[in-house]
Design goal:
Elements lengths: L3 H8 L6 E4 L5 H11 L3 E6 L21 H5 L4 E5 L5 H12 L3 E4 L13 H4 L7 E6 L14 H7 L20 H24 L4 E5 H8 L1 H10 L16 E6 L3 E6 L3 H11 L12 H6 L1 H12 L4 H11 L3 E3 L3 H5 L2 H5 L3 E3 L8 E3 L23 H7 L4 H9 L4
Parallel strand pairs: 1-2, 1-4, 2-3, 4-5, 5-6
Antiparallel strand pairs: 7-8, 8-9, 10-11
Helix pairs in contact: 2-7, 7-8
């Protein structure tokens, strides 16, 4: 028997929330996809004929020509094409905003003001609107009007200065982590604003910046600087505060991570290796091991090179010392654990060849859902305009004029 409670749960935690998504590329759309996965209705506004530029970032692409990049962050959304530079296009957006809960945008600061679509212009007509802006540097400060790019922000924030081998040039992280981190923080800010609106009845402006997010990502490394006033060095795969906590190479050019997090685990490690290093004053405590990391790392490297990765991972698991293999992407997604957690999802039920990475949020009462694959460009333009009262002749004229 299906209850009303069950029906509500299957609709998602954010069912009934309407989101107008004016963002593009990665950071903003990653936020709105999370909202969509949680049940919100998300209307993605794209440029007529062109759409979000990530539609064209291929190869690779699926057999229906959906680029892998676009599919990363646009499932569960509707696609509406509107030229917001035109008065008619602006009128459509304002009609949609009238009953929207959230607007998400990642234009340059002030970029929407000339169209009458900035927060100050929209707030009077919909005081409950939560207006979420994601920019490179935020709405305030001397750099506010500069464009923001993940790669550049990784450099400016200091993140690249602590990433990569100690010798040679700094490295960026392998994916656009600043974009994705900022997108998650925008999601958190939006959900906080929704809760605040329940009490006050008022919306607000949510302001998240890539630079702010990247600086927050420095976490303990940034705090190390604040506590010591020293510039943190680049340590490659070593941990700045814990030793041994790094990558080692086993026999056969196989790499694994050893995450020995405390003195007790180090004692177990030494017992497993049948060495007495835990009795050496240079290594008895973590601060001592940090001070003598080069010596200890060299000794461990010599030991681990003598046997296979499988051998060491088995012994470390039996000993209770944390360790793990370094997988390539194919190996990671094929892990039984990843499969059990539904971290790869396909849309075969929707006659779509698209496969996507799953949402990591698992809710027992109102789980995320995968309702629709990434939309075709302008797939929902007619139905969205019809819901606003536009008849077929009006829609045809808008198309002929290049407005939608």
């Amino acid at each position: 028997m299906t209850t009303d409670h069950d029906n509500e749960a299957t609709k998602g935690a954010l069912y009934g929330i309407k989101v107008l998504d004016l963002s593009r590329v990665l950071a903003g759309p990653s936020c709105t996809q999370v909202l969509a996965d949680l049940g919100a209705e998300v209307i993605k506004v794209e440029r007529p004929s062109i759409g979000d530029e990530t539609r064209h970032w291929a190869p690779p692409a699926f057999s229906d020509e959906t680029s892998a990049y676009y599919a990363t962050i646009n499932r569960n959304k509707k696609s509406l094409t509107v030229d917001i530079t035109t008065p008619a296009g602006q009128a459509i957006i304002k009609q949609l905003i009238a009953d929207s809960d959230i607007l998400v945008e990642n234009f340059k600061v002030g970029g929407l003001k000339k169209y009458g679509l900035d927060y100050a212009s929209l707030k009077p007509s919909n005081p409950r609107l939560i207006y979420a802006s994601l920019t490179g540097f935020g709405q305030t400060g001397p750099d506010a009007k500069l464009p923001g790019y993940d790669y550049i922000i990784q450099g400016l924030s200091g993140l690249m200065s602590i990433t990569g081998p100690s010798a040679g040039e700094p490295h960026k992280v392998g994916v656009a982590v600043v974009d994705l981190f900022a997108g998650l923080q925008l999601t958190i800010g939006i959900q906080a604003a929704l809760l605040a609106r329940q009490r006050s009845g008022r919306g607000q402006h949510v302001d998240v910046a890539l630079l702010d997010s990247a600086l927050a990502m420095l976490a303990n490394v940034g705090m190390n600087h604040l506590a010591s006033n020293k510039v943190p060095p680049r340590l490659g795969n070593q941990h700045p505060n814990i030793v041994p906590y790094q990558v080692f190479e086993a026999e056969g050019d196989q790499h694994f991570i050893l995450a020995c997090g405390n003195d007790q685990q180090f004692v177990k490690l030494c017992a497993m290796l049948q060495v007495g290093w835990d009795q050496d004053p240079r290594f008895t405590t973590n601060p001592a091991r940090v001070a003598n990391r080069e010596i200890l790392s060299a000794w461990l490297s010599e030991k681990f090179a003598q046997q296979s990765r499988t051998h060491w991972l088995r012994l470390l698991a039996e000993t209770g010392v944390p360790a793990g293999a370094i997988h390539n992407v194919a190996e990671a997604l094929a892990m039984p654990q990843a499969q059990a957690r539904e971290m790869v999802v396909d849309f075969k039920a929707h006659n779509s060849p698209v496969r996507v990475l799953g949402n990591p949020i698992k809710l027992s009462e109102s789980p995320v859902s995968y309702r629709s694959p990434p939309p075709r460009l302008s797939e929902h333009t007619d139905s969205t305009l019809a819901s606003l009262g536009y008849d077929s002749e009006m829609i045809a004229k808008l198309k002929a004029d290049g407005i939608v």
